[in-house]
Amino acid sequence: MMASTTFEKVRGAAADILQAPVAQITPASSPVTIESWDSVQHLNLVLALEEKLGIQFEPEEMDKMNSIGEIVDLVDAKLKAN
Amino acid sequence: MCQVTGSVRDEADEWIAAGHAGKAAAALQEIFRVEGGSGAAASFVVSRYEKIRTALGLRPHRVAILRSFTVEPVVPLLRAAGFAAGLDLSVHVGEFNAYVQEIVDGGSALYGFAADTAILAVDSRDAAARLWRDWSALSSAEARSEIDGVIERFRNWIAAFRGHSQASLIVHSLASPEAMARGILDAQMEASQAEAFQEINREVRKAAREQRGVYVLDYDALIARHGRSGWGDDRKWLTVRMPFAAGHVGDMAREWMRFLRPLSGKVAKAVAVDLDNTLWGGVIGEDGIDGIKLGDEYPGAAYREVQRALLDLRRRGILLAVCSKNNPSDAMEVLERHPEMLLRPEHFAAIRIDWNDKAGNLREIAAELNIGIDAMAFLDDNPVERQQVRGDLPEVAVIELPADAPQFARAIREAPVFERLALSAEDAQRGDMYRVQRERQKLESAAGSREDFYRSLEQEAEIGRVTGATLARVAQLTQKTNQFNLTTRRYTEQEIERMSDSPDWRVYWLRVRDRFSDNGLVGVAALRRNGHAWEIDTLLLSCRVIGRTVETAFLAYLIDETVGAGASVIEGWFLPTKKNAPASEFYSSHGFRLAEETGKGARWVLDLPQQAVRYPEWIRMTRHGEVK
């Protein structure tokens, strides 16, 4: 299997959880642009990424995950720090 | 955990678009099998099952979760696991921390939901806050009164729930704190914080045992199994009130499934096991009886543990069968003579050792044991065989085994498909009954006529009204019996108890003994009075005694009882299913006339008194409690 980028991993999880086509998810996607992205799905997305990538988000960081682009940046920073 | 490539997701979507629900379900099961712990995959699987659930004819089951903490992320994983098991779970999550109001208020959303099963999941930090947090500040009298208060509240919740609902109830036990307030001193003191939580849990178990259909989920043991220090993630507790870390959300769902499987009847009645590298290490055809690995030492010890786990299943009422590609004489020599074998030929209810494909052999084994193919589980170390069985027989529960033999036994012990919530005397003896059945069949083929065979069986039928001692088995039979079952209505213990308490209902059980053995409690009938007519709501027989005319004896007895109660008519529905063809001729062959046919079935009527149904002369009848 080819190594996928952080964006592809985040996009895959977001598509599964938000039940949106993969192609529709861009760095600009956010709770404003995707209707199904409510607080429960936000938590599910956070948990899915933690579980899949073996990382843990700090409480402060959970407030800074307002779009797919922001999430990708945060995950990248965490994976580098590990 | 590896991720199934997008293509399997696309494949599932294509099958759905093409209207092939069965193939779509197979693709979704594959995604769930490979990515099982992932909440993302579960969300995908659930969203796609939503589109095909009606076409698949899954068994519906309604689950209400009463909770003091965040459980929402568990729900997609639970529903996905349900779908993969053939269960369509509707889940109602109670308001956050409103479990007390929902339980005590008979008009709450909880009771409006009409759950089949409710789960009461309360965190120790909510249910026993002072014992958790302030232990070292409490005097021993204060601690005593806190402990008693917690126990009292659990007792009240359980009683209030049972007062309003007949649903099954699963109560989480309380988790112990990870670090005791007094450190290692706690274990030296009579007033121990750890002991306080153990005492509460003991009393909750006792309260559950005193009620029907109330079960304890040992939450403390669940956490211990996964490692207490890694179970929770403080950030999640403090921010979103979720007591488990991201990696354990799936473990919570799996633990709930261990209860929902037996509660909904989605369990295996038999497991067919491979031999080489499953029951022993190595290949008998190549290594020989002295070369295979089995015994107290590594690596043979791992296989002994597998055999021990299988013997435990057998004592739980699950039949064992052999399904192996081997030369029969080589393999039988090991089963009969290897000194380290725990499993012997007499432990197996059916044996298939040949070079045929395993799917075909599994079908034959199911037919020989007289159980549905969907009641079979399959255990094989070889992933290729597992994949083939999964493809050919999607109904069979294929047990996932890790590559490493020392982990096999654990995988068997943790498989939800083998769970039971009650154990009857019949369960513990079932394995032996099938051996006796083979002797019966020998007698049948030796007998000159059917009547000779019936006479030679020396059958005795004992019939009684259901009581506390027989409730569990009667409910279990309504849950599990598919073939000789006129209406296939499933009842819980609580429902059976209610029916038997009602003046308009009579619930009977049937026990059959013969010259070979006591078959145990093998029949159930539930009759309901509508004025002068009595309706047979339920009549079923375990497959063990089909074809031996005991159904005629049972019916004759029921007719006598209803005539005694002043009935002028006895009637009943036959509701056809995929599996109950063996019962389809029951009414017509006993002189009932067809009164009504609808899309769901046919209603049959017999006017009383009658001459059509007589006691077979070869069955000795006993009324329960009567001394003969």
If you had to describe this structure to a student in words, what would you say it looks like?
The complex is a heterodimer of chains A (82) and B (628). With 82 residues, chain A is mainly α. Chain A is 56% helix and 0% strand. Chain A contains four helices and no strands. Chain A has helices spanning 6-18, 39-53, 59-62, 68-81. In chain A, helix 1 crosses helix 2 (39-53) and helix 1 crosses helix 4. The longest helix of chain A is centred in the middle third of the chain and has 15 residues, at 39-53. The radius of gyration of chain A is 12 Å and the shape is globular. The two termini of chain A are 23 Å apart. The model of chain A has no long low-confidence stretch (mean pLDDT 90). The longest helix of chain B has 25 residues, at 140-164. The radius of gyration of chain B is 27 Å and the shape is globular. The termini of chain B are far apart. In chain B, helix 4 (74-84) links the parallel strand 1 (59-67) and strand 2 (87-93). In chain B, the strands form three sheets. In chain B, strands 11, 12, 13, 14, 15, 16, 17, 18 and 19 form a nine-stranded mixed β-sheet that branches. Chain B has a five-stranded parallel β-sheet with strand order 2-1-3-4-5. In chain B, strands 8-7-6-9-10 form a five-stranded parallel β-sheet. Chain B has 628 residues and is α/β, with parallel strands linked by helices. The model of chain B has no long low-confidence stretch (mean pLDDT 93). Chain A binds chain B through residues 1, 12-13, 15-17, 19, 22, 40, 43-48, 50-52, 56-59, 62, and chain B through 1-3, 5-6, 37-41, 43-44, 47, 70, 72-73, 76, 233, 235, 238-240, 242, 245-247, 249-250.
